[in-house]
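Hi all, posting the design record for the shared folder.

TITLE: backbone redesign
STEP: 1 of 1
STRUCTURE INPUT:
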């Protein structure tokens, strides 16, 4: 079943779809949606904390950046689901003649590239969110620190899922040097940002 608009699905329907035997939505999509919800906790922590600093305009800018990141994660969750469905369709293409075999091979390769790019887009967005969390964590009110920390852990879990998905795709994409390098750079950035957030 193709899911045309994840953002409009009730959470109970999303649960049923994710727990079914259908290929999508899978881990990348579901984790991106979890990251989307995690941003709401960061926004809550910023909005509550800003009350103690009414003259600090930087909170409004951080708020704007987080709202934009949340919207991007919804788009990327859909892209992840769509790219994986494209990959599954490519696997089912006919492979009787030499022309069909070549066409199928190209379709699988292109779909794997697309799925990898979607995973890396999620990872890059997650790193951006972690960077924001790190920049504001010492300004968050004590009463709401738990929500800020929870958001960091959920976004990090989303990033880890994106890394695993990209790694799995890379087994057949070693020649895609730009993607390989992008993944390694994003992994290193994720690790550094998470350590910085934990160091407080």
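Okay, here is what came back for every position:
SEQUENCE:
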């Amino acid at each position: 079943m193709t899911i045309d608009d994840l953002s409009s699905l009730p959470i109970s329907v999303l649960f049923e779809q994710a727990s079914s035997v259908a290929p999508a939505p899978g881990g990348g999509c579901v984790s991106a949606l979890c990251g989307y919800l995690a941003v709401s906790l960061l926004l809550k922590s910023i909005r509550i904390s800003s009350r103690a600093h009414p003259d600090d305009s930087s909170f409004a800018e951080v708020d704007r950046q987080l709202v934009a990141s949340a919207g991007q994660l919804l788009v990327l969750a859909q892209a992840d689901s769509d790219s994986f469905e494209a990959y599954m369709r490519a696997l089912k293409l006919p492979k009787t003649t030499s022309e069909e075999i070549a066409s199928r091979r190209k379709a699988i390769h292109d779909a794997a590239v697309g799925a990898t790019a979607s995973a890396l887009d999620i990872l890059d967005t997650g790193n951006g969110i972690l960077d924001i969390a790190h920049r504001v964590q010492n300004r968050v009110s004590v009463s709401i620190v738990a929500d800020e920390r929870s958001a960091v852990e959920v976004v990090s879990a989303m990033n880890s899922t994106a890394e695993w998905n990209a790694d799995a795709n890379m087994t057949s994409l070693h020649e895609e040097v730009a993607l390989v390098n992008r993944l390694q750079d994003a992994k290193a950035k994720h690790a550094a940002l998470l350590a910085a957030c934990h160091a407080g």
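COMMENT: The chain has one domain: 24-199.
Let me know if anyone wants the other runs.
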